[in-house]
Design brief:
Distance between the termini of chain A: 19 Å
Largest interface: A-B, 31 and 31 residues
Radius of gyration of chain A: 16 Å
Order of helices and strands of chain A: HEEEHEHEEEEHEHEE
Oligomer: homodimer
CATH topology of chain A: Rossmann fold
Structural class of chain A: alpha/beta
Chain lengths: 193, 193
């Protein structure tokens, strides 16, 4: 079965919708990890961006790492994960960008070592979730500071109705999301685009 | 070439020893990720613990996730990563254990959802590094609280001279480390066991 169908079916089966617009998929995506599913999703994302000369698959810790590993495997390039640091405490030698977590309601800074990202790199961004787009914007800022080219973003689950993905598309970013949620509700369940 | 040789050669080639007993391997293991190498290491760890009925591969965020994904893939079971939480703020519904990070010189708490770890589980622990054993002890405590059986620990790089691994072995834990560092020094380089 295609990776997209597998993922949608798994979200329908095991995803739990909670008040406050929370979709809990930690039984397979971001706490417990179904590596067979993640590898299929990673291979599909890689296929969408093949032939573009990607040299780095960039994500953010912690829940993007699993997907990024499998995407990078199929693009035959390294994965790289931005680390979360306290904003007040940024060392030299890193590219950094501020971000806000709506999940945890805090501000933090993403950092990537300058050793591993530069003007010679062609980057594919990837993450487990895309909602308001805040994390992707921080990764884009890091790539801009590094002078790296970005070919797009490959996402496991996009909450399309939150609008962050479509704003970024309107600004010219190519985004490929393996599952796009049109709406969700604790009573009515989940509808896909 | 065998995974162990590949890993040792990579440590010799790209590992950097800094004062304060720091081995920097973030060009391939815990910031930038060489997924081909990590998959070979993960497959080897899985082979060492095959046939033992492992149902979960347990690690801790963030740098253990990549290895755990590949180990779990080859053991055909889910990976599960303990999240780091502020000690003061632990919810119900999780198994937790306190740990100390010598790298960051802070205390934190590891948490795993009770939904994903219980008395029916047979667990293989895995991590990128083993030095003083503090992280492994926290994972063991979580498994003990959950009533889960632990078959051992598969580690990418053990700093053998720090003694944490051998203390745990003396207590009965089976540990398989893919590279064991006997000594290291900024001037004299790295010696393996």
């Amino acid at each position: 079965m295609a990776a997209l169908q597998l993922l949608e079916e798994r979200i329908r089966k095991d995803g739990k919708v909670f008040p406050g617009d929370v979709l809990k998929v930690d039984s397979f995506l971001n706490h417990q990890l179904d590596t067979e599913l993640l590898e299929a999703v990673g291979a599909e994302i890689a296929a969408r961006f093949s032939g573009l000369g990607v040299t780095k698959v960039l994500t953010t810790e912690a829940s993007g790492i699993a997907i990024a590993c499998f995407v990078a495997k199929y693009l035959h390039c390294p994965a790289l994960f931005a680390k979360k640091a306290k904003t007040a405490n940024i060392a030299d030698g890193v590219w950094s960008a501020n971000a806000h977590s709506y999940t945890h309601n805090n501000d933090y800074t993403m950092v990537v070592s300058k050793e591993y990202l530069g003007g010679h790199d062609t980057v594919l961004l990837t993450d487990d979730f895309l909602a308001n787009g805040c994390a992707l914007r921080a990764l884009l800022e890091i790539c801009k500071k590094a002078g790296a080219k970005v070919v797009g973003a490959g996402i496991a689950i996009e909450k399309e109705y939150q609008g962050g993905g479509n704003e970024l598309r309107a600004e010219g970013l190519r985004i490929e999301s393996m599952a796009r949620i049109a709406s969700m509700d604790a009573e009515d369940g989940i509808s896909f685009c």
